[in-house]
Design a protein that fits this description.
Largest sheet: 9 strands, mixed
Order of helices and strands: EHEEEEHEHEEE
CATH superfamily: 2,3-Dihydroxybiphenyl 1,2-Dioxygenase, domain 1
Number of strands: 9
Distance between the termini: 11 Å
Length: 129
C-alpha cells in the first residue's frame, strides 16, 4: 500500500487553507462537497505530500465530534490499493473493523474508498487505483 494522503480535520476550510498556504501548500484542488459523508474537502500539496483538508458540512457531520474533542488535527491516513475489496478482507482478518464499505468518493475522481479502524492505530482510508 502506498500513502495517498493524510486526512486533516478543520473547523473552517477556508481559514485553514489560508494558513496552510503560508506553509507553502500552493497546489490546490477544487473544493468538493461530499453530501454522503457530510463534509467539504479540498486537497492541497507541498513537496509531493498531499493533505486532504476535511471540514464538517452542517451539525450532523460525524467530523464534528473529532473537532469538539481534539480540535483541528490529522485524523486518518489514506492508502492507495489495487483491489479495494481484497485489501478490506485482508485487513479485517487482521483486526481492522470496516466502518464504511467501499463507495464512490467525489473528491477523488469518484474512485472507490473505504474506511477502517484499528484500536492500536486509529482510522485509515483505502483508495482504489
Amino acid at each position: 500500500m502506498k500513502i495517498h494522503h493524510l486526512g486533516y480535520a478543520v473547523k473552517n476550510l477556508n481559514l485553514a487553507l489560508r494558513n496552510f498556504r503560508k506553509l507553502g501548500y500552493n497546489k490546490l484542488s477544487p473544493q468538493v462537497i461530499d453530501k454522503q459523508r457530510k463534509v467539504v474537502i479540498q486537497f492541497i500539496q507541498k513537496d509531493g505530500y498531499q493533505l486532504e483538508l476535511v471540514s464538517p458540512l452542517g451539525r450532523q457531520s460525524p467530523l464534528g465530534n473529532i473537532l469538539k474533542k481534539i480540535g483541528p488535527t490529522a485524523y486518518h491516513i489514506g492508502y492507495e490499493v489495487k483491489n479495494i475489496n481484497r485489501k478490506i478482507n485482508q485487513l479485517r482478518r487482521n483486526k481492522f473493523v470496516l466502518l464504511e464499505k467501499s463507495s464512490s468518493a467525489p473528491a477523488i475522481a469518484h474512485k472507490k474508498v473505504a474506511f477502517l479502524f484499528n484500536k492500536e492505530i486509529g482510522l485509515i482510508e483505502l483508495v482504489e487505483k
